[in-house]
């Protein structure tokens, strides 16, 4: 079948002064900040394995899958034609193609198959790329990846599930685990009355032979077509963690009733459900009564993914805005040559450079944590900083990128409209902003070695840039003050630590113009609006790092 180019001469006008039609691009080869970060943080095999994924993600075919998965959101099927209960979600074929691309590439499993030798860095970089195809389908990938540390608290459960969870395959059918070559996992924690305060959960777990029966309601269930769900429920010992499979050991559908799908602002390709456990069969995971401690092993992993996804979205929006600026003229020259537009795009580029650097550094801490106490200490803190700050920056970033295109950026044919709707989701999931900032204070109080490890990292960049040095002094002054003053300023502290860490990483490895531009515009005379860079900052070295259309 021939691939015809769009007509450029229409009945009454020519299509002129527009960027060229979309073509295949290489999302990995074009991404200099990502490749440089990997060269600093990861073993060589990671970049080699990511290269084909970058080609796929940047292709018109895969980009079209993301558009279709959003245009045709999941549909709830409660019953079959005869009235038998199904409790299934039907997805558009494009969603399944995206899942096949990711799962058959093993990106949900690579952190554990290559544990301790770059696996987390490979996973994080792959998620950053896959997000640029479509963020919504990445939810079940993240959940499946993140479940393994929690399941290790139940060796028998792990033995049954791990081979299917680590398989380089995808099977979206609703079947018992034994009948599938590969499986995915979801999560169902929050309830209406508690939300983030999961200790207020009321779902009950009653012993039934070797397992339990769960009864209760879950306000949010992520990825409801998964083969099983990690969940929390109360028993006589307190709040426990349980694995609830879609099918019971005898092959019957488990008593997990989907009540409705959430109609979300964005994240439309992904289904989120409200569910009811009506005596659902479940297996305990971890020590009885220590469910929160057990499931936090999963949450720590999902938080890192929730920190990386917004950076991937920002990268996609940045490339879209730069491509438009390079292909459109206004007031006698290309937008890419207009001083104001150059300042806006360069400022957006600095944000992505810093986000990539912090994401990959956090992933390296995860990889090295088992054999290095300092890296283990950093692994407690870096995902918290990145998760909070990257998501604070996302919505404004998308709005600014959309404005670079003008009216055409606001319509659904542009990816920017769905990226804008998607931008808040990772800030809300796995701990909203206040919860994350309070968690930072908890780590500071209970694990002072984490703060010491972070300050050791920050100290390496001291003396290279004045705004950076002054920012460190501000942080130390706040932490040296009265303890009761910290909570009201927890957001300021989290933001400042995140920005200082980004700056330290850029000062260590990025080109001078990037590091200097970031420090002066974020730690010096900072503005909440993008495009307010110092007048004497050299923009060309920053913009030259972007792909030329």
Main attributes?
alpha+beta; single chain; 549 residues
How would you describe the overall organization of this protein?
By secondary structure, the chain is an alpha+beta fold. It has 19 helices and 11 strands. The strands form 3 sheets. It has a 5-stranded mixed barrel with strand order 3-5-9-7-6. It has a two-stranded antiparallel ribbon with strand order 1-2. Strands 10-11 form a two-stranded antiparallel ribbon. The longest helix has 37 residues, at 291-327.
Write the layout of secondary structure elements.
Layout: H1 32-41, H2 44-58, H3 60-71, E1 75-79, E2 85-90, H4 93-104, H5 110-113, H6 119-131, H7 138-151, H8 155-165, E3 185-188, E4 204-208, E5 211-222, E6 228-235, E7 238-245, E8 256-261, E9 272-285, H9 291-327, E10 329-330, E11 333-334, H10 339-368, H11 373-405, H12 415-422, H13 425-428, H14 433-446, H15 448-459, H16 466-480, H17 490-509, H18 512-524, H19 540-543
Parallel strand pairs: 3-6
Antiparallel strand pairs: 1-2, 3-5, 4-5, 5-9, 6-7, 7-9, 8-9, 10-11
Helix pairs in contact: 1-10, 2-6, 3-4, 6-9, 6-10, 7-8, 7-9, 9-10, 9-11, 10-11, 10-17, 10-18, 11-12, 11-14, 11-15, 11-17, 14-15, 14-17, 15-17, 16-17, 16-18, 17-18
């Amino acid at each position: 079948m021939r691939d015809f180019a769009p007509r450029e001469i229409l009945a009454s006008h020519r299509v002129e002064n527009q960027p060229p039609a979309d073509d295949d691009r290489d999302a990995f080869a074009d991404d200099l900040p990502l490749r440089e970060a990997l060269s600093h943080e990861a073993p060589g095999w990671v970049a080699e394995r990511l290269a084909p994924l970058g080609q796929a993600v940047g292709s018109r075919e895969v980009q079209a899958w993301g558009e279709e998965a959003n245009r045709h959101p999941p549909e709830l099927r409660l019953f079959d034609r005869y009235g038998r209960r199904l409790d299934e979600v039907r997805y558009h074929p494009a969603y399944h193609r995206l899942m096949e691309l990711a799962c058959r590439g093993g990106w949900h499993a690579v952190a554990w198959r290559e544990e301790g030798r770059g696996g987390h860095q490979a996973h994080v970089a792959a998620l950053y790329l896959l997000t640029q195809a479509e963020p919504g389908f990445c939810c079940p990938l993240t959940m499946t990846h993140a479940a393994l540390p929690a399941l290790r608290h139940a060796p028998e459960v792990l033995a049954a599930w791990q081979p299917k969870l680590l398989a380089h395959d995808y099977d979206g059918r609703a079947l018992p685990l034994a009948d599938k070559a590969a499986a995915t996992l979801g999560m169902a924690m929050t309830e209406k009355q508690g939300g983030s305060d999961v200790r207020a959960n009321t779902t009950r777990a009653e012993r039934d032979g070797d397992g339990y029966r769960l009864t209760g309601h879950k306000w949010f269930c992520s990825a409801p077509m998964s083969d099983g769900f990690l969940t929390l429920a109360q028993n006589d010992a307190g709040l426990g963690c349980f694995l609830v499979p879609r099918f019971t050991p005898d092959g019957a559908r488990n008593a997990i009733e989907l009540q409705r799908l959430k109609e979300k602002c964005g994240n439309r390709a992904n289904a989120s459900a409200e569910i009811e456990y009506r005596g659902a069969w479940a297996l305990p995971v971890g020590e009885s009564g220590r469910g929160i401690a057990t499931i936090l092993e999963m949450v720590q992993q999902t938080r890192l993914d929730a920190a990386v996804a917004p950076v991937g979205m920002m990268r996609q929006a940045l490339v879209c805005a730069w491509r438009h600026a390079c292909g459109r003229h206004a007031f006698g020259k290309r937008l890419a040559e207009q001083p104001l537009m150059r300042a806006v795009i360069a400022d957006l580029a600095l944000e992505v450079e810093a986000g990539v650097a912090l994401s990959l550094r956090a992933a390296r801490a995860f990889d090295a944590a088992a054999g290095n106490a300092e890296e283990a200490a950093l692994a407690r803190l870096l995902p918290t900083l990145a998760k909070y700050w990257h998501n604070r920056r996302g919505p404004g970033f998308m709005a600014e990128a959309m404005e670079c295109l003008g009216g055409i950026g606001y319509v659904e044919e542009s990816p920017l409209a769905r990226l804008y709707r998607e931008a808040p989701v990772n800030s809300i999931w796995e701990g909203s902003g206040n919860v994350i900032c309070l968690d930072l204070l908890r780590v500071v109080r209970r694990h002072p070695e984490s703060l010491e490890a972070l300050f050791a990292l920050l100290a390496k960049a001291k003396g290279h840039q004045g705004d950076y040095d002054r920012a460190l002094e501000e942080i130390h002054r706040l932490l040296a003050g009265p303890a009761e003053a910290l909570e009201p300023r927890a957001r300021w502290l989290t933001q400042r630590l995140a920005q200082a860490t980004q700056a330290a990483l850029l000062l260590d490895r990025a080109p001078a113009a990037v590091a200097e531009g970031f420090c002066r515009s974020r730690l010096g005379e900072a503005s909440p609006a993008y495009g307010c860079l110092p007048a004497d900052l050299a923009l060309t070295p920053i913009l030259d790092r972007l792909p030329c259309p």
